[in-house]
Amino acid sequence: MKKIVTIGEIVVEIMATELGNGFLEPIPLVGPFPSGAPAIFIDQVARLDQPCGIVSCVGNDDFGKLNIDRLKADGVDTSAIRVIPEYATGSAFVRYREDGNRDFVFNIKQSANGQIGPAPEVDALFDSADCLHVMGSALFCEGSVKLSLQAAEVIKAKGGLVTFDPNLRKEMLDLPGMREAMQEILSKTDLFLPSGPELSLLTEAKDDVGAIAELLSRGVTAIVLKQGSEGASYIDARGRIDQPAFAVEEIDPTGAGDSFGGAFVTCWLRGEDPAASLRFAAAAGALAVTRKGPMEGTSRRAEIEAFLTERA
Ligand code: ADP
């Protein structure tokens, strides 16, 4: 079976239990939960029984152990997660506003994650991989940018695939070197999975139609556009398939895109039909929003299949 690898941040997430603005006053918190976009993505892949692994760094602390234990238990190859005693595991604090937006306090670059870089275990993981999934959020430090580009070369040279979710807010594009790094990854991307406005963010186009034409002409084989509760679409040179979102009660949107992406990339790599893959991934995304906690939203194959049978 083909193996999917990703690179990037592993954090614990600590969430506010009440709505509000920022963290300037004391509020009840709940956590820690295993998290980090690449970690959630790869956990979803593992829960579908697809071989997979992640390159990352954690500290020698309980937060690191929490993450490694969870990923291992779900079947992720954790051999390229380095434990770095001099640094702490990354963290993210989240608070939800009344209007649905979120405030974050991140400790990623200054944590063990900032030490992501080359190692013999990392090379071994790339050599065993058939697909690299890049998360834009993981391009926060030079080490992970270099590794992502190296992995893309190694995997493409042996006929493998590169998938790319920009997973980015506009402000992040202003980080030094970020735009260039994203463009380089995009130039090697087979499957692009943007959310809403990310579709045109890395193009010269003025609208979505222009952005799609530009992306396909630059070598992207297929685009999967995620639009939250509005659903998702699959677009390639042959046309477009739309998949409405399943009606569910949203409890926590964090991780929906990562769960959706993990499910779609797994189906795509297995050569499954795009319409069926889109439906399967939409079910994974819908299930993710019904559960509190970022990685708690990932689903096993049987859960997704049962959901789809119920909604047929
Ligand atoms: P991202 O988190 O990357 O921005 P989205 O929020 O678009 O990704 O979520 C990915 C997919 O998950 C959506 O295309 C949809 O299929 C599903 N999804 C997300 N939010 C909901 C929701 N509130 N109800 C049902 N499905 C949802």
Largest sheet data: 9 strands, mixed
Radius of gyration: 18 Å
The secondary-structure class comes to alpha/beta
Mean pLDDT comes to 95
| Low-confidence parts | none
The hetero molecules present are: adenosine-5'-diphosphate
- Beta-strand portion reads 15-25%
Q: Which strand order spans the largest sheet, edge to edge or round the barrel?
A: 5-4-1-8-9-10-11-12-13
List keywords for this structure.
single chain, 312 residues, alpha/beta, UDP-N-acetylmuramoyl-L-alanine:D-glutamate ligase, 9-stranded mixed beta sheet, 4-stranded mixed beta sheet, 10 helices, binds adenosine-5'-diphosphate
Structure description:
The protein is an alpha/beta fold and 312 residues long. It has a domain at 7-36 and 56-117: UDP-N-acetylmuramoyl-L-alanine:D-glutamate ligase (3-Layer(aba) Sandwich), CATH 3.40.1190.30. The chain is 36% helix and 21% strand. It contains 10 helices and 13 strands. The protein has helices spanning 37-47, 62-74, 120-127, 142-157, 178-187, 198-201, 208-217, 256-269, 274-289, 301-311; strands at 4-7, 11-16, 29-35, 52-58, 81-83, 90-96, 102-107, 131-135, 161-165, 191-192, 222-226, 232-236, 239-243. The protein has a 9-stranded mixed beta sheet with strand order 5-4-1-8-9-10-11-12-13, with helices on both faces. Strand 4 (52-58), helix 2 and strand 5 form a beta-alpha-beta unit. The protein starts with a strand and ends with a helix. The chain binds adenosine-5'-diphosphate. Adenosine-5'-diphosphate is lined by residues 195, 226-229, 231-232, 245-246, 248, 250, 253, 256-257, 260, 282, 285-286, 289. Residues 195, 226-229, 231-232, 245-246, 248, 250, 253, 256-257, 260, 282, 285-286, 289 line the site of adenosine-5'-diphosphate (ADP). One of its GO terms (molecular function) is kinase activity.
